[in-house]
Design goal:
The complex is a heterotrimer. By secondary structure, chain A is an alpha/beta fold. Chain A is built from eleven helices and four strands, in the order αααααββααααββαα. Chain B contains five helices and no strands. Chain B is globular and about 40 Å long. The chains are: A alpha/beta, B mainly alpha, C mainly beta.
Chain lengths: 196, 99, 96
């Protein structure tokens, strides 16, 4: 069976379930399309990048972000309430002494409300099984080589909090604007599998 | 009895494969499954932990053979049957037996 | 059952449950029966193990608990911080 064929069979099954639920009053007409549109317009790594850039230029904001990320997000008009329920966000800051990396070993918990959907590698068994046991080896696969004296802290999102990494500001960026700094930040940087 | 989802620290998985320029969803039906699950949880048909549990107790071989959103859809249909909202026969597409 | 979010304080040593439950749980297998240190409280929520069975109990305290990799895997110079319900944790008495 080709992949396209598998896809068309499951597409038909999903449509059938939607029709059946609509018939039973458990879905409104157009509700699924509306939710898909809302989701597409929701979180993206650009939100996380804005948060990071603000923290780099405003030490007061950085302290508030690390102490109570949900409240600090509000200063930028962002929130963790875009998903099923408002979630607690914990931001962990990289330093010369400590590098943080985030995983969900039990499923695929991720700050979707803020960052949008996670990449497939984040949801893979390969990442989830290995990063808690050998983070240095996993980071090396991502091209991140840390000094031996840098402590690595892995955060497993096993309950209700979601995590985001605050990367270190790269050297030589003193002249950049906040928007230009945000442009340096990648999704992997927010997860901890890239330096920025 | 650790479940199949509980892979933290498990040996034997391959290097991590990144997909360049990965789309949010790889097919329309994946977006539909994502939205359908959110709609059912918001309506209180089931909760998020029941949804996770339903994935975790899929038969192991089926779980391992399924893609991420195939697992989601399998969990959704499992719960719809267990909650008495639909029968398994009703949830099968008409052409399921044609292949 | 009442929930005291101050049952554990940052710096407290705790041991995780070693039992192997039949159903859904949010204590990863690799962190069972291990001793770690409470980093900070993380709010209170009904226990996921109960919610998975359709039972919504009272809110229970949740904590970030940090483990040394050597205590989990017998090797590694890193730490792993896991977010755990108080139901999974018991106090470790300090040596006098």
């Amino acid at each position: 069976m080709s992949g396209d064929h598998v896809s068309s069979v499951i597409s038909a099954r999903v449509r059938r379930v939607e029709d059946l639920l609509e018939g039973r009053g458990l879905l409104d007409a157009g509700e699924i399309d509306r939710r898909i549109d809302e989701f597409a317009a929701g979180g993206s790594p650009a939100n996380g990048a804005r948060v990071v850039a603000r923290a780099w230029v405003d030490p007061g904001f950085a302290s508030r972000l690390l102490a109570d990320a949900n409240t600090a997000l509000g200063e930028l008009g962002l929130s963790m309430s875009g998903g099923l329920q408002e979630q607690r966000l914990k931001v962990v800051a990289n330093s010369a002494a400590e590098h943080h990396v985030v995983v969900c070993t039990l499923c695929s918990c991720y700050p979707i409300a803020l960052l949008g959907p996670s990449p497939s590698w984040y949801k893979s068994e390969a990442y989830r099984s290995r990063v808690v046991r050998d983070p240095r080896g996993v980071l090396r696969e991502f091209g991140v080589e840390l000094p031996a004296e840098t402590q690595i802290s892995v955060w497993d999102a096993s309950a209700e909090s979601r995590y985001m990494v605050l990367p270190r500001r790269p050297e030589g960026t003193g002249a950049l604007s906040e928007a230009e700094l945000a442009g340096l930040v990648t999704r992997k940087g927010l997860i901890g599998t890239a330096l920025v | 009895m650790s479940r199949i989802n509980d892979v933290g620290g498990m040996a034997g998985f391959p290097p991590i494969a990144e997909e360049p320029d990965e789309p949010r969803f790889h097919a329309d039906w994946e977006a539909h499954v994502f939205a359908l699950n959110g709609a059912l949880i918001r309506r209180g048909v089931y909760n998020l932990d029941e949804f996770r549990d339903a994935q975790e107790r899929l038969p192991v071989q089926r779980y391992l053979a399924a893609s991420y959103y195939e697992r989601w859809f399998a969990a959704i249909t499992t719960l719809l049957v267990e909650k008495g909202i639909a029968t398994a026969a009703e949830l099968e597409a008409p052409d399921d037996h044609a292949h | 059952m009442t929930t005291r979010t101050d049952r554990f304080a940052p710096g407290d040593r705790v041991r995780t449950r070693s039992a192997d439950p039949a159903g859904h749980t949010r204590l990863p297998g690799y962190a069972r029966g291990a001793v770690g240190v409470v980093v900070e409280p993380a709010g209170a929520h009904p226990l996921a193990d109960d919610r998975a069975r359709g039972v919504v109990g009272p809110a229970r305290a949740v904590y970030h608990v940090r483990f040394a990799a050597t205590d989990l895997f017998g090797a590694g110079d890193h730490t792993v911080t896991v977010e755990l319900w108080e139901d999974y944790l018991s106090p470790v008495e300090e040596q006098p």
